[in-house]
Design goal:
Keywords: Hydrolase. Belongs to the Nudix hydrolase family. The chain folds into 2 domains: 1-53, no CATH class; 57-190, Nucleoside Triphosphate Pyrophosphohydrolase, CATH 3.90.79.10. 20% of the residues lie in helices and 42% in strands. It is built from 3 helices and 10 strands. α2 (160-168) runs antiparallel to α3.
């Protein structure tokens, strides 16, 4: 296991690498595309891999007066509403920091005096290349919400205890928001994330 981990985050391990032999583009939509790759496995045999391509996204842990800003929004794949932190996809060539500021203002009406990147993480590396850049926004100033024309949501401010209750109730069940709640808890206990 000595090949796991490095300063730059990526260590090649030739013993496990797969070689792409061909790619069949199946679907290209507004947000995602789907391809099926034929790959050569380390043992020489072949397999197929279904891959979802995504432009990436940003998410914002926005804190105001010991509360976190969240939005309640209907999620078609789940068939129900989900409470989440403000988030959205990156536009082509868009800087993630600027996207985070834009999404915060669009979905909550707030701007921030302080914002910093916490982490970037892949949502489902077994089949998708989507990466989410998570930011911490503080020193918030209220303004007007300006969601996308096909985006219907309600903004709320919740305490850490309420966030944990919403996780228990599975009203918060997405990875980015759960990660943000745990990061917020650490921040409230130690002053560091």
């Amino acid at each position: 296991m000595s090949d796991i981990g490095s300063k730059n985050g990526h260590v090649p391990n030739a013993r496990l690498e797969e070689t792409t032999l061909s790619t069949n583009n199946i679907f290209s939509g507004k947000i995602i595309s789907l391809q099926v790759d034929t790959v050569r496995l380390p043992n020489g045999s072949t397999a197929t891999r279904e891959v979802v391509r995504h432009p990436g996204a940003v998410a914002v842990l926005a804190l105001k007066d010991q509360k976190m800003l969240v939005v309640d929004q209907y999620r078609q794949p789940l068939g129900r509403c989900e409470v989440e932190i403000p988030a959205g996809k990156l536009e082509p060539g868009e800087d993630p920091l600027e996207a985070a500021k834009r999404e915060l203002e669009e979905e909550t009406g707030y701007t921030c005096g302080s914002i910093r990147k916490l982490h970037s993480f892949y949502t489902s590396p077994g089949f998708a290349d989507e990466v989410i850049h998570l930011y911490l926004a503080e020193d918030l100033t209220r303004g007007d919400m300006n969601p996308d024309e096909d985006e219907f949501l309600e903004m709320a401010e919740i305490t850490l205890e309420e966030a944990y209750q919403l996780i228990q109730e599975e009203r918060i069940s997405d990875a980015k928001t759960i990660l943000a709640v745990y990061a917020w808890n650490m921040y409230s206990l130690t002053g560091k994330i």
